[in-house]
Specification:
It is a single chain. By secondary structure, this protein is mainly α. The chain has a single domain, classed as Orthogonal Bundle (Lysozyme). Helix content is about 50%, strand content about 5%. Helix 5 runs antiparallel to helix 6. It starts with 12 loop residues before the first strand and ends with a strand.
Length: about 170
């Protein structure tokens, strides 16, 4: 009896950033591990938006104060500047449920990925081969920023630093 062998699955491209900070590398790794996002420009867009929001400082209150979660009394907080009452409180609820500190990057990244707004945008971030502009629209639906600022510039900076490895 002849059994046809199955073709090997295509190699998975995993993006790395050797010239990134430890915080940037952590976010990149977690997003790739916890989602199906594989497009370089989608990942760069996520990183570029986080850089615009917080410079990857998890303990940052809107305006620049570096304080623990419970000492940020107005405006946004954290890596994506959770601002609305529901989103800000959602971070604390998530932290209690999963026994993590809402001031820390690891807790915030897990919350960010699980949050409804990110999950809604995920269907766009997982479409490969799209333009940065396309992914920026997804980022806007996720974050709802008031000022675009340097998001696109940061996105291109990350896109130029990301290198793929087959795994």
């Amino acid at each position: 009896m002849f059994i046809a062998s199955m073709p090997a699955p295509p190699p998975v491209v995993k993006w790395e950033c050797k010239d990134c900070t430890a915080q940037e590398k952590f976010v990149l790794r977690e997003v790739q591990m916890r989602t199906d996002i594989t497009d370089k420009y989608a990942l760069a867009t996520i990183l570029g938006n986080i850089k615009q929001e917080s410079r990857f400082h998890s303990n940052i209150c809107e305006g620049g104060s570096r304080v623990p979660y419970h000492r940020c009394y107005s405006g946004g907080y954290g890596i994506i500047q959770w601002t609305t009452e529901n989103r800000y409180a959602g971070l604390a609820t998530f932290a209690r449920k999963y026994k993590c500190d809402p001031s820390y990057l690891n807790c915030q990244v897990r919350y960010m990925i699980s949050e409804k707004q990110f999950q809604t945008a995920l269907s766009k971030f997982t479409q490969n081969g799209r333009s940065v502009r396309y992914y920026m629209k997804a980022a806007y639906s996720w974050l709802g920023w008031g000022v675009e600022g340097s998001r696109v510039n940061y996105t291109w900076e990350f896109a130029n630093k990301l290198t793929g490895t087959k795994g």
